[in-house]
Amino acid sequence: MSAAIGSLCLSASAFAQVDAEEVFKENDCHKCHHATKAKKGPSLEKIAARFKTENLGTDEAIKHMTSGGKVKLTDGTEEDHKIIDSKDPQVLNAVAKWMLDR
Ligand code: HEC
């Protein structure tokens, strides 16, 4: 968690080059994660709030979007979570920060 805070300064300059929202859309993440409304997955607002309450950082979010474990959808079914189509730490960091920065 402290590592996430430490890397903020380092990666800040990268954000200008990565359009996190665009990556999020290209990966169909928005089909399950709306900014404020629950869809098949929790809203970004809800995820960000939980991460704040539980003191989780971008590392945790990146782990989730790259490891693809089973998740329970709001309709009660289970499926493997989508794995983001990038291994570039700058992209992953930008998307994680964009998701949690609300
Ligand atoms: C098929 C629907 C679906 C798609 C597509 C999807 N997600 Fe999710 N996602 C979920 C569900 C459901 C959860 C809640 C998991 C839980 O709470 O157990 C979740 C949770 C998360 C979390 C929070 C993890 C946590 O620990 O609470 C992150 C971060 C996340 N998704 C990122 C992404 C990204 C980035 C993409 C696109 C690459 C994406 N999701 C695409 C359904 C989806």
Characteristics of this structure?
102 residues; mainly alpha; Cytochrome Bc1 Complex, Chain D, domain 2; two-stranded antiparallel sheet; 5 helices; 6% strand; binds heme C
Terminal CA distance reads 18 Å
Specify the helix fraction band.
Answer: 40-55%
CATH architecture: Orthogonal Bundle
Computed Rg:
13 Å
Which blocks of ≥5 consecutive residues have pLDDT under 50?
none
Number of domains: 1
User: Are any ligands bound, and if so which?
Assistant: heme C
Overview of the structural elements:
With 102 residues, the protein is mostly helical. It has a single domain (2-100), classed as Cytochrome Bc1 Complex, Chain D, domain 2 (Orthogonal Bundle). The chain is 49% helix and 6% strand. It contains five helices and two strands. It has helices spanning 2-12, 20-26, 44-53, 58-67, 89-100; strands at 70-72, 78-80. A two-stranded antiparallel ribbon has the order 1-2. α2 packs across α5 and α4 (58-67) packs across α5. The longest helix is centred in the C-terminal third of the chain and has 12 residues, at 89-100. The chain is globular, with a radius of gyration of 13 Å. The two termini are 18 Å apart. The mean pLDDT is 90. Bound molecules: heme C. Heme C binds next to α4, β1 and α5. Keywords: Heme, Iron, Metal-binding, Signal. This is Cytochrome c. InterPro entries: Cyt_c-like_dom, Cyt_c-like_dom_sf.
